[in-house]
């Protein structure tokens, strides 16, 4: 047992477990919030920006660095836009609840 | 930062992403969830900066992309959400392709060996083709949703099909996989040709698999592309042995897959048949048939009279409400009715509109309290005790043919508006719905049609009520 586990196996382990987590968490999402769910997951998938930053960062000018830099820009549109638009949408769902609460408090 | 520290920070970010999704289980916790997502992303990016040699270019590009993203997110109308989401999926897809190309060109800067080990090559292959299909497929979906049909037939919201379509797709898929196998087994020399062939074929495939899918199946397509964008991120994560990307990608991928499943179930159609497309081609002749039957049509004044005399009303919004941007007018109408003592609720079918949850967002934008908005399963038993069902721009989701064995949509769960005492239907014309089949609801004795643009009709009803 001195041999180390191949990183690919470790990756697959993480991958399969994450699918299970995703499965259980997403089934609990209320149908009313399915559109915000898409925009939030969209923003989360822009985490590929991590790969893009590494690609853009070797410090020397190369094809890989240029492609990485473009990818950073594209993914950033998603990161900022995705979370922002989710915030906007969710604020609309929130607003009424506060209003409803106020009305209940008044009565 | 040591690799171990980096991995731990990535773990924290992954947990925050899970909490972001968990928050969406209730509108009350949803904003906090989104905030967790933002923190997770910040941790991910900052951690990556600390392990990168040169970050000025990245920061510049992030600022540029960020400003564009923020402006778009601020300005977009809620009725345009489906297009926006499709456009964003395409960006993730393209980013994945670019990163994969960067890995192929310069594996050392990612800490991989050169030539790239075969395991990572397989993962690069997966990340690339899924990313490429996501990109071009989402562009087509964007065009269909944004109504760019006039600029090219491939963006037409009607299904585009031609003989041998599935065979062509199959052949292209085989070429793509073949090129992928050549790529995985090649060394640093001669890897670009199969890589470029594989990527180009994947771009083409993305276009071809989305064009035959028609407008009303868009909720499935957009969920599917959502899922693909996650799998593309996972592919990149596997290639780079990066657990954060793997976890985030798997979360997004399974989320999109679940949404696709929910949408298909709401249409009672197998996922494969939706993806094969071509549904709803026979619209023309059936609507011609429909004209021969008699419908009762009324004016907004008649509707106002019926609504104000009702005790309970259920409003069924559909795509027509989104197209007409009638949500604010409807809210006003409902307020007027409520002050008169009418009990009004909204009934939402899962596939109403063009994306999952589309109607809920539109109503939320118009400040409709979400306890008035009821999902299909929870409201269907109430129709028989309801005075008026008011169908606003919906068609197939209220078609009683779905309960008749032998009809093309038999088995599709519907909102049972035909059980209400009176049915009011607002439509722009008598044209058949997307499924291309006639709707007997329109010819029932208790049904009254009000033709016209949803917003204008509702506004005239409001005036008539005053």
Q: What would you say about this model in short?
A:
The complex is a heterodimer of chains A (107) and B (466). With 107 residues, chain A is mostly helical.
Describe this structure as you would to a colleague.
The complex is a heterodimer of chains A (about 110) and B (about 475). Chain A is mainly α. Chain A has helices at about 5-25, 35-45, 50-55, 65-105. Chain A has four helices and no strands. In chain A, helix 2 (about 35-45) packs antiparallel against helix 4 (about 65-105). Chain B is about 60% helix and about 5% strand. Chain B has helices spanning about 5-25, 25-50, 55-75, 80-105, 120-145, 165-185, 190-210, 220-240, 245-265, 270-275, 285-290, 300-310, 320-325, 325-340, 360-365, 375-380, 455-465; strands spanning about 310-315, 345-350, 375, 390, 420-425, 445-450. Chain B has a six-stranded parallel β-sheet with strand order 3-2-1-4-5-6. Chain B is elongated, with a radius of gyration of 25 Å. The chains are: A mainly alpha (about 110), B alpha/beta (about 475). The interface between A and B is large, with 84 and 116 residues.
What proportion strand of chain A? under 5%
Q: Main β-sheet of chain B, in a few words? A: 6 strands, parallel
Weakly predicted, low-confidence segments of chain B: 280-291
List the total number of helices of chain A.
Answer: 4
End-to-end span of chain B in angstroms? 69 Å
How do the helices and strands line up, and which of them pair or pack?
The complex is a heterodimer of chains A (107) and B (466).
Chain A: H1 7-27, H2 34-45, H3 49-56, H4 63-106
Helix pairs in contact in A: 2-4, 3-4
Chain B: H1 3-23, H2 27-50, H3 56-75, H4 81-105, H5 118-145, H6 165-185, H7 192-210, H8 218-239, H9 243-267, H10 271-276, H11 283-290, H12 300-308, E1 312-317, H13 319-323, H14 327-339, E2 343-348, H15 358-365, E3 373-375, H16 376-379, E4 388-392, E5 422-427, E6 447-451, H17 454-465
Parallel strand pairs in B: 1-2, 1-4, 2-3, 4-5, 5-6
Helix pairs in contact in B: 1-2, 1-9, 4-5, 4-8, 5-6, 5-7, 5-8, 6-7, 8-9, 12-17, 14-17
């Amino acid at each position: 047992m001195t041999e180390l586990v191949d990183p690919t196996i470790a990756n697959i382990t993480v991958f399969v477990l994450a699918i299970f987590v995703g499965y259980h968490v997403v089934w609990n999402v209320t149908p009313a919030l399915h559109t915000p769910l898409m925009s939030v997951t969209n923003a989360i998938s822009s985490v590929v920006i991590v790969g893009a930053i590494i690609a853009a960062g070797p410090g020397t000018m190369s094809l890989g660095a240029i492609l990485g830099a473009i990818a950073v820009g594209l993914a950033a549109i998603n990161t900022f836009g995705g979370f922002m638009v989710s915030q906007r949408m969710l604020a609309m769902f929130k607003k009424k609840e506060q209003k409803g609460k106020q009305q209940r408090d008044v009565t | 930062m040591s690799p171990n520290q980096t991995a731990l920070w990535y773990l924290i970010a992954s947990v925050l992403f899970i909490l972001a999704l968990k928050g969406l289980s209730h509108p009350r916790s949803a904003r906090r969830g989104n905030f967790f997502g933002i923190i997770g992303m910040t941790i991910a990016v900052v951690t990556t900066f600390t392990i990168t040699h040169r970050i000025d270019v990245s920061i510049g590009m992030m600022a540029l992309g960020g400003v564009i993203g923020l402006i778009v997110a601020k300005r977009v109308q809620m009725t345009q959400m489906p297009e926006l989401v499709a456009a964003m999926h395409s960006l993730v897809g393209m980013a994945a392709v670019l990163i994969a190309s960067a890995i192929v060109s310069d594996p050392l800067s990612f800490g991989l060996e050169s030539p790239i080990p075969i395991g990572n090559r397989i993962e690069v292959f997966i990340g690339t083709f899924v990313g490429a299909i996501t990109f071009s497929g989402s562009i087509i979906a964007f065009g269909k949703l944004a109504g760019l049909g006039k600029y090219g037939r491939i963006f037409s919201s009607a299904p585009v099909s031609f003989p041998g379509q599935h065979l062509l797709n199959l052949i292209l898929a085989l070429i793509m996989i073949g090129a992928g196998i050549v790529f995985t087994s090649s060394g640093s020399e001669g890897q670009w040709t199969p890589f470029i062939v594989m990527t180009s074929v994947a771009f083409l495939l993305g276009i071809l698999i989305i064009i035959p899918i028609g407008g009303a199946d868009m909720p499935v397509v957009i969920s599917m592309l959502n899922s693909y964008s996650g799998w593309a991120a996972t592919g990149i994560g596997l290639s780079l042995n990066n657990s954060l990307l793997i976890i985030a990608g798997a979360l997004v991928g399974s989320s999109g897959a679940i949404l696709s499943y929910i949408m298909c179930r709401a249409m009672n159609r197998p996922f494969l048949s939706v993806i094969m497309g071509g549904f709803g081609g026979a619209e023309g002749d059936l609507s011609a048939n429909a004209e021969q039957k008699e419908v009762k049509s009324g004016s907004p004044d008649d509707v106002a009279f019926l609504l104000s005399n009702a005790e309970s009303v259920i409003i069924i919004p559909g795509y027509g409400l989104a197209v007409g941007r009638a949500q604010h007018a409807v809210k006003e109408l409902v307020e007027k009715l409520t002050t008169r003592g009418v009990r009004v609720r909204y009934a939402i079918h899962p596939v109403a509109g063009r994306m999952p949850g589309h109607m809920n967002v539109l109503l939320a934008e118009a400040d409709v309290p979400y306890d008035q908005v009821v999902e299909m399963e929870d409201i269907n038993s109430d129709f028989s005790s309801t005075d008026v069902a008011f169908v606003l721009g919906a068609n197939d989701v209220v078609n009683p043919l779905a309960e008749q064995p032998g009809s093309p949509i038999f088995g599709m769960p519907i909102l049972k508006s035909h059980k209400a005492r009176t049915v009011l239907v607002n439509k722009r014309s008598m044209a058949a719905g997307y499924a291309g089949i006639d709707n007997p609801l329109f010819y029932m004795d208790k049904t009254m049609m009000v033709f016209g643009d949803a917003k204008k009709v509702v506004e005239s009803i409001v005036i008539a009520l005053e």
